[in-house]
Specification:
This protein is mostly helical and 167 residues long. It contains six helices and two strands.
């Protein structure tokens, strides 16, 4: 490599870099409308992760039933926290799979979030449903809401719960 070529490389290194041009994927009109509607709901404080106003109302109603103690470990729940009370309301049947009972009054148990992370461990399958100290309550609540579960969703019900209902 000659001296002239080294000089050109040094000069080139001092020049501003070319800006990369990124292309965004096409977004359909339906998606744009849905996103706009969700943005309005979020701005008005009506939206939750799924279900919108109905789910928000469901969480508020469940808060009235909270005891302040985790039904599994006995630790403190977030009942008294206006910001975090939802963290202690764990769905027995996940709301993203069992949409028909996502807001059923019996589809919850009170689990701590910050103390021993029982809610997180339950949601992430690190704490099995059978290992819960409130398993009897889970069974009672499941049996009560079973008739309201959509027939198409029933195939996702864990076998351990199905054995408690007459199919």
């Amino acid at each position: 490599m000659g001296a002239e070529e080294i000089r050109r490389l040094k000069e080139k290194a001092l020049l501003p870099k070319e800006k990369k041009v990124y292309r965004l994927n096409h977004v359909s009109h339906k998606t744009l409308e849905r996103n706009a509607k969700e943005a309005i709901e979020i701005e008005q404080g009506k939206a939750m992760t799924t279900g919108g106003a109905e789910l928000k109302r469901w969480f508020e109603d469940r808060r009235k039933e909270l005891t302040g103690r985790c039904w599994h470990c006995g630790g403190r729940s977030c009942k008294d926290s206006d910001q975090y009370y939802k963290f202690s309301i764990a769905h027995i049947l996940p709301k993203n799979i069992f949409k028909s009972v996502a807001t059923h009054p019996k589809n919850f148990i009170e689990l701590c979030f910050f103390n021993n992370s029982c809610h997180t461990n339950f949601d992430n399958k690190m704490l099995d449903i059978m290992d819960l100290n409130c398993f009897d309550t889970v069974i009672e609540r499941f049996v009560a809401m079973y008739p309201d579960i959509d027939k198409k969703e029933r195939r996702y019900i864990p076998d351990v719960l199905l054995q408690y209902v007459e199919v």
